[in-house]
Amino acid sequence: MVRRNPLREKRERKVLEKKEQVELKVRDLKPNSRWFTITVKVLKLNEEKTVLSRKDGNQHRVAEALVGDETGTILMSLWDDDIDKVKDLVGSTIKLQNGFVSLYRGSMRLGLGRFGSIEEAEEDISEVDETVNVSERRFESRGPPRYRRSRF
Question: Is the pLDDT score of 15 beyond 80?
Fold first, then answer.
């Protein structure tokens, strides 16, 4: 069971309100980019999988969507209810607020934070540059090495 701390959530909301949202394009995304807004077209939604969370021990649905704009494309990780939101918007333009970029196996992934949101955009992206996929670039993790316990 995950405990909620109302005071911590209130502080986090204040930080979120203070941070100025930067509007980015796909070409501007870098590993560990945070707190930005991006407008992209949903090109494809891959098959969803069920995974077991290490944090809360519950099962969650996860899927990847290929999204992009006139500067390139990127894979976007979607969890649980966000999959259902994007499923109906394939071929449409969406606006992500409070997005972040993470590395998954050395590859950039677009994601939504706890306070992130997805909504259908007012403007439409007519052409997407599918020749540049920033998720195909490989990066090395710069953090300290993580050690896993042996099962033996």
Answer: no
DSSP 74-118: EEEEEETHHHHHHHTTTTSEEEEEEEEEEEETTEEEEEEEEEEEE
Beta pairing partners, 24:
38
**Segment 126-140, tens digit of pLDDT:** 999 999 999 988 887
The phi, psi pair for 81, rounded to 5°, reads -65, -25
**3-state helix/strand/coil string of 118-138:** EEECCCCCCCCCCCCEHHHCC
Tokens 């972040």 belong to which residue?
A: 100
Q: Which residue has the tokens 């994601």?
A: 111
CA 51 to chain centre: 17
Domain boundaries, the chain: 29-132
Class of the CATH domain delimited by 29-132: mainly beta
Q: How far apart are CA 24 and CA 36, in angstroms?
A: 7
